Give the backbone structure.
Amino acid sequence: MNTAGPAPLVRNAIQWGGALLLALLLTLGLGMATATAATDHDGKTVASIQQTEEEESPYSFQGSMRDSDREPIVGVEVTVTDESGFSGTGTTDESGEWSVGVPTPGTYTVTLNVDSLPDGITLRDPAHESREFEIATTAQQGVLFAFGDPPSAQPTTDPGESETGSETPTGDDSETETAAEQPRGQGFMAALTQRAINGLFFGLLLALGAIGITLIYGTTGVSNFAHGELLTFGGIVFYATTTLFSLPIVAAIAITLVACTVFGWLHDFALFKPLRKRRVGMVQLLIVTIGLSIALRYFFQFLIGGGTQQLSINRGAAIAIGPANISTSVLIAAGISVIVLAGVAYFLTRTRMGKATRAVSDNASLASASGINVDSVIRTVWIVAGFLTGLAGLLYTYFIGGAIRWDTGFSIMLLLFAAVTLGGLGSAFGALVGALFIGLVTEISTLWLPADIRYAVALGILILVLLFRPQGILGRKERVG
Amino acid sequence: MEILNAFFSAFVDSSSAAFALAAIGLGVHFGYGGLLNFGQAGFMAMGAYGFSIWTAVVAPTENWGWHPIASFLSAIVVGIIAASIYAFILGLPTLKLRGDYLAIVTIAAAEIVRFSVRTTELTPITGGSQGMTGASIKTDIQEINPLPSGQYGFWVFEAGAYDTWVRIIGWSLVAVAVVLVWALFRSPWGRVVKGIREDEDAVRSLGKNVFSYKMQVLVLGGVLGGLGGIMYILPRALQPDFFATPTTFYLWTALLLGGAATVFGPVIGAILFWALLNGVRSIIGVAHEYGFFFGLSSTQAAQLSFVFVGIALMVLVVFRPQGIFGNKKELSFNV
């Protein structure tokens, strides 16, 4: 019954040392929750055997059921069976959540008992009544059942994503909310404006994250595949400060940014500086970042669980710009992005440190020979990258509707790389152009193409651009090699 | 016992065979050819989807009355062709560029494949985000299984007739791939490829068509990846999200664990990867049962094993980049 509360789990993980007692209490609480769930089955012996199996096995299917008004649906039965004759049953609790433990990884059939659905609620896709799922590398498999009629006013809004079995059910909340900002039935121009504005904001956020990648690449030659985790880190600290510790928003933002800046510095200090000293090769460094990405990502999952966590932040009222509706929080986020990006531009072109950074980017040994302290430039770059990417993570939680997942950053990491490559590897302004382009393309393509392949469209354009202009939009030819 | 079970079953499991095939392919790319492929999962997806669509949607047995053996073999050929075409399309724009471009393009292309096959619009063909059920892709292979039903093997290696059959096919393919790679890379062709890895310009000055050699390497490794993809789905179901970036990263871990430019390295690496992953997971599980990790759920404890994978990969590549078997001179880490 792990679904009983991801939030408490985070709490005890974060307050690790100090709050052992609290953790014990929480475990007790979890135990009690399990006990109540067990009695829900009216003392059926079979059911209680299943309950004990659940506690022993780390593998489970789980999900939450909500109707079209997003109200939880209580008391729906879900049965999980496999070919060897295993069978387990779960029932949704007051918050609409259910979970069925299974003994081993493997392929299972998950069936919804349609008779147990309340009156008036039907599956959106009747074929989803019974589906096959596999438990392999992840211990918990989310299964989503979508109810009600397909929203007719939003033909292109993420039907694929909201029916994704492998994402944890609440994972689609964010998508649905973003989609809900879309105007209903106001014609093509309205949709285009809305998508373009969304794309512009998304592009600005991507730019914040991508500049870090390109600066690090330019000065050290490392393609940091763990960059998405920097972004997730920002989101998670923001989630912890706003939602778990309920700090005022200004304090939460300040703590998040400081934490991310320190995190960026720590990357350099604890990992990349020693590796530079050892003269570790480029491809080795690349693989080190992959290892770092895996380790951090699962550590985040360890902290906040495999589901989507909702942030208790005020997203602001929606205001209309022309035919489009934008929530004020997204507007503010975009404003902050523009100001910070302008700040970065000033830093790179006008300050001593910024000029030194560009010099190192250009030619590290020449810069070093002319008296620039390359190590301190690289340290600065990591700090700036940590700050910018953490800020991007913080703002991104707003953009996707006040939510954070353990793999939020990882899921857009490739878009960040696409932005950087499009703009030209190593060029900060190229990254900005590339990011805006990617942001606009992903959003506007949904007007014609299924929304669930919008990232594929962006990556496809990346490959096309590389065909004709390998150095990217603003890159220089000699880097292509 | 539980730990030993988890550890040793990886030595015969067909998942290890599938990973071994894909890792051999990756070893051909990176270890011998010096190509930075970060999208091996995309090649696996092409193989797996080619196989599954041929078996379940085109269904020659049902629609054209083919013998199950013919349709099973033709499905594998379709998977191989799909992986080759994919490799060819990827190689065309990128093989003339510097190494990290291939890295970015392969990783992006693998994700394009995954996003495309799981889109709702393609559900009738690819099964959309749910993929395809095990039952629908296993029809032919079950039909031609020569083993009567029952249990085979002993101790932790015991398995049912179907699983044993898949294991036989999987490990035979691995054996064939190992022999093929061994023979190819001691031939003149293989020496040219290794030469390209060491110094592309030197080989070019000898009048060799570097681009063509690189393309052959990319296709060969991609086909092995495609076969790995087919072997991975055969014991279970076709799940689009398996073919995501993390799978590629795990393959790299397996490859570097064994040693990139070696014949047996990828095989041993793949086995050890699963053995250690399952072993660590069950050690943590047992420790959890005995009350270590206060207040943690067993799921959280299981996640720690992946943190361990990540750290192991970092330590490995820094301190022993040539892997268990490798020769340090054989590795070019500065593409």
